[in-house]
Every structure is written in C-alpha cells, then in structure tokens.
Batch of 2 targets.
Target 1
Amino acid sequence: MLVRVPTLYVPRYPTPPLSFPGVSVAILKVAQMGHPVLRRVAEPVDPAAIRTPAFRRVCQDLLDTMDEYDGAGLAAPQVHLSVRVVVLTLDGSEGPEVWVNPVLTPLTDRTSATYEGCLSVEGMRGRVARPARIHVRFLDDEGAERAYVLQGFPAVVAQHECDHLDGVLYIDKADPRTLAFLPEFRKFGRMDEYEDAPPEDLDDEPELGDAVIEVPADLSAAEALALAEPHLLSSEEE
C-alpha cells in the first residue's frame, strides 16, 4: 500500500561537503563482515553534491549492484563508500529509491521479528526483532526532502539498511540462538521452531500490515504518525 501526501518543503542540511570521485564500474564489490568499513559511522552527504554527475554515478552503481545480487536494499558502506546513502525497494510497484542522510524514529514499542540475511554476511540467517512502525526523513536523488511512515516489512528493510550507516550489522541484533548457515536454514527451517518456549521478542498480538505512507517532510514524527494513522489502520485490516 502506498499513499503519497503532497508537500512543499525546502531542505536545509548543515552537513560538511564531500567529494565523490567517478566510479567506472557498475557492479561494485560487496564488503564482507570483518572489513573495517562496515563498522564505521558513515559521513553525511553535502546536499549540494546530490545532483552532480559523480554522485549520480555512485547512486546508479549502488542500484545496479543491488539488482545484480537480488537484494531488497544496499547501503553505501557495503560497497566501501562510507557515506550516508542507501538504496532500497519498499514497494515493488514503485521501484527502488535512493535515500541520502536518512533519519529514523521508532513510532511504537511493538516489534516485528523476522529472519534476515545480508549481502555483507554471506550465507547466514537470523531472527531480528525491530520496531514495527517507524518514521524516516531523507533527501532523495534530486535533493528534495521527503518522509515516510513505514510499517511491517518496509520498516524492517529500512532499519536493516540504515543500520549499516552506523556501523551496525543485523547479527549484532539477532537472537544468537536463531543464527544458522544458509544450507542448514533451507534444510531444517527456522531455529525457533525447535524451542520449547515461544521467543521472548514475539507476542500474541496480530502482525501489523505492510504500509508505505509518504507524509510532509516538515512534520515531526508524532505529527506524521497522526496523519498516517487512518491509512495504517486500514492496512492492518487488510
């Protein structure tokens, strides 16, 4: 479900300037766990750089690399670029997006626990509990400030990718009892199915439906939630 609320807002981000040398290859090498770039806090991007040819080349290479590896998202640090940029697909009908300098805010104490994998942690899966509803504000690939309220799987994808910008991998947040190598995961299934007691990060409440709701970027997280609430309720009913 995608609801777009029109907005007119001029972004002002006091971020330091960065240079983006041209990258000639379209499919970039993905850094693996253990490489220092995956543990750094990435640098913010100067909004003035967003519409330059060099930065557009970086964004296109990120998109090409994500597509090549059939990922739901990819963060710049995963391809050895320590800047605050992610590409991701929230809604298949809308296609991939570029987020620059994203800022995430949880909107609920409820969590959604899903099994995650990562191109930078090859061959593993593990269950991660994350806030089920978030607000995100970012600059798009034209430099315009935009914002979403996300719920369900889109919220998971956004949090997974944006964690990379702060040097965090999903295995840092995963329940270690659920970590499995991919061949065993495919053969035996989810490790929590073998537990005698239900996982602590799961509750009896019904899962929240998936939702991607665009809201005016000048609203606070609380104001954005109030605006999006009717659409979130309808997504749960679906």
Target 2
Amino acid sequence: MLLRVAAGVGGGRVSAGGIGGEGTGLDYAAPVPVAVRVIACLDVDDGRVVKGVHFAGLRDAGDPVELASGYDAQGVDELVFLDITASSSGRLTTYDVVRRTAEQVFIPLTVGGGVRTVGDIDALLRAGADKVSLNTAAVARPQLLTEAAARFGSQCIVLSLDARRGGDTASGFEVTTHGGRRGTGLDALRWCEEAVDRGVGEILLNSMDADGTTAGYDLEMIRAVRAMVSTPVVASGGAGALGDFAPAVEAGADAVLAASVFHFGTLRVTDVKAALRAAGHEVRETGGA
C-alpha cells in the first residue's frame, strides 16, 4: 500500500515563555491562517471521466489518471473520484484507477460512489485512497458512519451530501441519493449534524440544483450548513467562472471543488488560486504552469 502524507497547518512555536503562561517552557503564536483548498472532481464511469448536468447527458472528459496528473502539475490541492455507476462489475475498475492514480499523483485523494460496507472502505484505502466518501449507504444505515470513523478515524471519512431545494423539510433542503435521482425526505442540515456527531471528518456538499450548470455555487446552502456544523465543508456544484469561488469561501466553505470547468479547459487551477488570493484568501502556493 502506498502511503502519502498531506501537509498540515500548525500554529505553535516554542519559546522561553510557557503554554498559556510564564515559565512553563512553551508559548504559542497566533494560529496560521488555514489555506483554502482547491479540489478537482472526477466523475468516473467504467474507467473514464464523464461530466453532464445533474448527472445526466454525460460527456466523455478523458482518462482519469491523465487528468489527475495534469491537475497535480497545475497545483490542485486534492482530488475527488466519484464512481457514478458503482456497479459490482465496475468496482474492480475503480480500484485499478485508484491504484494507478496513487502511484503517480502525491496529493490527497478522496474516493466515493457505491461504498456500502466497512470492507469497501478498507479496500479503497488499501488501493491508495486517503479518504472515502459515503452517501447512499450512510442514509440507509447511519451506523455505518459511526463504525467507519471508529475503525479508520474521522480524518478518513467524508459525508458526501447531494442536497436539493424542496421536500417537506424544516430547512428547505432535502437529502437525495442515487446520484440525486431519489429524494429521501431527510432534512439536509439535520443530516449534516447527525453525521458529524457520528464522527465524519468532512462534508462534501453538492448542490444538485447547481450541479453542472456553471451558474455559481449555492451560497445559501453553504451558509446554512456552516451555521449548523464546524466540520470542514467542501463546496461543490455550479462553479463556472473565476468570480464564483471567493463567494463560496466567504459563505463558509473551507474548500472549493469544480469539475467540468477544469476538464474542458474553461478554467485552470492556477487561475482559480490567483482569484482567491486576489480576494484576500490564503491558498497553497503552486508551481503549476
């Protein structure tokens, strides 16, 4: 198994003072600002990257390993692979894609789609994933989140939340499953809160209304989730222009994810980071051309 380490953010320094007081031997400086992460998402269908609108009208966008290597060269901070078909016959293909990517790209990799058991999570982590995202199976059996976090650690477990407006929910946002095709009646904000209580370390928040539209992120949804939980939130769904990313961060996202605008060359990772930096947000430096 290939082990990869993602850089962390520290805020402490040792001095002659103390931890919170004189004479104890340690003193802490102000926390270092946490950099906004820029993430590329690759929806994988039978070993190929595809993209459509609302998970429909899919177009071939290329080989996942080649795209991942290209994004790495541009300086993307993380990658997300989502197996959108998630059939049992396609599962071996997914493992192969993860292995080949992990051998070439040394940035954090989250993999999801069709993950149903703790055994599935274990297999993906062994194949080279750093984190595994859960959606449909967690809605069907929330205890899976508890079991996964207890076994692998919260840092490895991501709640993938496909939410849409509508449904008979208090917040006005409903959890969907099966690629957004099925409503659940669950309140998306309450589900986020429960998932965090069960141990998830991150929320991948995808607006099904905005997905693939390039009309901008759902800022109201991001604000609502941020008000509910302190766990890191990844904004997904709707990125179309450089001006879309900073508002998502200002609404409460810790990371911004995009797919089609990267796959088809509309935007480059380096330009997104430059736009975030110009808006006053910390981003990780990149050597990408």
